[in-house]
């Protein structure tokens, strides 16, 4: 097989003048080291964690696209506040796309690299929204026979995140979980994991159809934040499960605060003397996403034993150590087509992923939608 | 010595109708168990942690007092939002005053209780804003010879809190501290501890005269939040000290968020590739007080490795264990007149502490002011 001389790579740049640009740049085919392989990227998903790098704090409601084919560009203005947050990335061409899968089409001279030639592998290496990607052979997860790039495209971020939420719960002494944006691809995986591991899970969704989707999956505790009885329902569900740990994908607004208040109200149902400083059991909400970029507002009406903080998969894995990471990865490979199956509603070419109307759809994606980029299209 | 038949005790009550009342109630002299003592309370400080119990979320700007002597009452309206937060305490007569000191004037038949007769002891037992207080003998800390009730009145809350901040820093892997409302009695103790233990401390104050007070004490890093260069000064001080842990007494508003942003900006000064997910070292702000009852607003412009949470001395001591608590207590007794000396600007009778004009002063206390209640006045 003859490889082309160059390939297209999607990058995101914030200019000093306050404009975000996403475009395709032409890159020369890379040289391979002995222990490196070249992957022809065939399938790479758009995860919420990618959107943070792609769009940052730009005003996406004002995004526009121009050009066609390899010259398609997306631009969006950035407010002064957004520029403050993104100061450190001004002028840097950031490659985007955390994970993906494809076929190894070239390999260095090392034995392991050579053994991957022609294999379908998945990799979490960044810069995956590209036609080709160089990667260390050791970083590649060879898929089992019969599994396609499409099957393995999402086998790192969401599966490891969902598994790590349950690991975090155990490591920090909690016994049940609350999850927001719970009908997401990640949320569905988490439901399957919790069902298999007998962990009680409170699912918070934003729409009745999301509640229905989870109910159809067999989820037991589902609370709809669009319902008038949301806060009372949440207290009931938290009381029923004893959850004192939540993972929130939205990040902004009052949701984290409302979850902590519900945990406190649930704790107060257990008879005991009133304490002015609140319940003693630590209540924690981790913000692992930023679907809502507005500030997090905490009213602190839940005593003193609470915490809110950022949560990021690589930081967790670094803390948990290599053995845990290996154990989780092995489970993903074993259960790729069951627990960790991803369903895609749209397949986009690199160019399509830069068109303003398409971007608007995946930026504000609705129930069950999940977008896949197929760079060979 | 003949004891009276009854004594006065200060209580705080929130009615279902939305009114806070603080008043003195007459209580019968308690019966003593074998291992209990009766303390004639002579000195008991008004700490910020007491004010939480005294006033809760009432609108203190609208407080009014009525009556005289033992019939002095203070009332203040409570907003619907405040009622929501204080639901669990509606109708409960809460005794106030966490700590204090006085003379043991009666004792049960137990040997240890008897050994305390006539001694000056300090105790952290709650309900100390009273003429008398029954306490388990084991809970009493006998002061060294020559130390008065006034010397020992504040020997638990602030000394143990300041020491526990440094313990928390060590337990959680940080190497320097940031402290807000840093000119407070507690803040001054923390400066003395950090100087003795060679721990770098960034002091955040709100006024130039508070900065001067700390400068006169020999504090090295002082940042004034009323200064135009506050944010830049804070980054400089955090960069100089490497602090990744802060204790914030104010709780509300944007201060915690600004501290985290400054920690992130300080981390970004260390050369290295830009990471979209921010610096990897965990940055933590503990809210240990609520001088500002408005919501805590977090703009999350500091990556993913951060946390904000409540921090409460009893919860910390429970987690740290008995040995740590004993070690800290022994240090307080040894250094009561030096490191842990408290200076009081006002001495109030129980009645005075309920007068609206006096309450207004200690509710919004300024630099260096610290109020002591002397229930025998």
UniProtKB/TrEMBL annotation, chains A, B:
It comes from the Bacteria. Transmembrane segments: none annotated. Residues 18-298 form the Enoyl reductase (ER) domain. Pfam families: ADH_N (PF08240). CDD domains: ETR_like_1. SUPFAM superfamilies: GroES-like (SSF50129), NAD(P)-binding Rossmann-fold domains (SSF51735). Keywords: NADP, Oxidoreductase. Signal peptide: none annotated. This is NADH oxidase. It comes from Blastomonas fulva.
